[in-house]
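Thread title: Can someone regenerate the structure for this chain?

I was given the following input by a collaborator and told the matching structure tokens would be attached. They weren't. Posting the sequence so someone can regenerate them.
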Amino acid sequence: DLLKVIAAVDPENSRAHFVQVDRNERPPHKILDDEILQAIGTNINDAKKFQAEYQIKNTDRTTGARISGVIARQFGDDGLPYGTIDLTFKGSAGQSFGAFASIGMRLTLIGEANDYVGKGMRGGEIVIYPMNDNQTKTIPVLAGNTILYGATGGNLFVRGQVGERFAVRNSGARAVVEGIGDHGCEYMTGGRVAILGKTGRNFGAGMSGGVAYVLDVDGEFESRCNTETFELEALSEKSDIAELKQMIENHHRYTQSTLAESILNDWDQQLKRFVKVMPTDYKRVLMEQQQTALAS
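Best answer:
Regenerated them for you:
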């Protein structure tokens, strides 16, 4: 008998049939991008260089996205000339720092960041290095999980370690970091990454494109890989060696990393420790393209 359950508890309909409380309004919060855009003024429309420094805190989320939107509205995919909007931040950035960054933006963070750094990044540069510049043997963790998720371009340099699912679904960005957590380069389809430190387990699961250069610091990198879709190779091609060295040189130039400096100073020996992660199908397509080009 369900009558007690379905019977109307208020037959005369004199009371509210749902809970009525005051709306939980979001507290006033100043959007950092709005402050920056006000300072930028017409510099974006005029493609004029703008440089400034700001404090940032972990409630400042998706910093840079609105600026990128203004650039995209005016210039589309072409963006601005290299380094036109050059912003430096100090502190602890909230989630999605540098999300959807456009060509012509350079975001430097002196401190640390939460998850989703460079999410959907289109171009420009994101540079992260620690507030305390006294570098020690312990490499700091400076950014969270899911970095470069769905990125299509741009460059990321982190003078420290990052969290799990680094470069997941990356399809065009280039990055140098100094260690990562589990599931690195998961479902990556393009771009280039260099990892100058230890990786976590399940590296490269579903990776179908792009290339990763990994410094095998303990000789056990292969045991932490999911090699269903890729091969591990020694670096032998001159183009690969030149590309990796340029990436590390850029990393040192932007972050002053002592790790990068030590690798470059002992290049011939350190090069032997690097492993190239090359997706099998991607390698086959490249070889077919080369053969077609030679035939024509």
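Helices lie at 3-6, 32-40, 65-75, 238-255, 258-265, 267-271, 280-295.
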